[in-house]
Amino acid sequence: xxxxxxxxxxxxxxxxxxTAAVPHVIPTLRTIVADIAMRQDFDLDAVEDLRMAVDEACxxxxxxxxxxxxxxxxxxxxxxxxxxxxxxxxxxxxADDTGLSWQLLTALATSAxxxxxxxxxxxxxxxxxxxxxxxxxx
Length: 138
Fold this sequence. Notes:
This protein is α+β, with helices and mostly antiparallel strands and 138 residues long. It has helices at 26-39, 44-61, 100-108; strands at residues 13-20, 69-77, 80-89, 111-119, 122-132.
């Protein structure tokens, strides 16, 4: 599955998953990111951090998905995994980025960012997170 993923313009492999924005699909997304990280030789702590970060990102966005859809894009290179989770929302308002969920997410990822942009008569709410392996950090 993962080894045959298409390559983007930067040489990273990627997988895009579009699914219903319901809590019971989140474990599947967590499993995908864990598989990717393990195949990239991330240590077990980093794999678990990525699993929890994807869980938090999805949990932040699922309640605001007005069209009932969630998109999750996984992109990776040798020492780096990037995950973008997005939903279409009715409102540009989003959860407090100083709350516990956001603090947990930012602690689990090397970097995390939340954006809201106008799109398709609503707002595209997106969480982007990056996790680098310990081998990639100085």
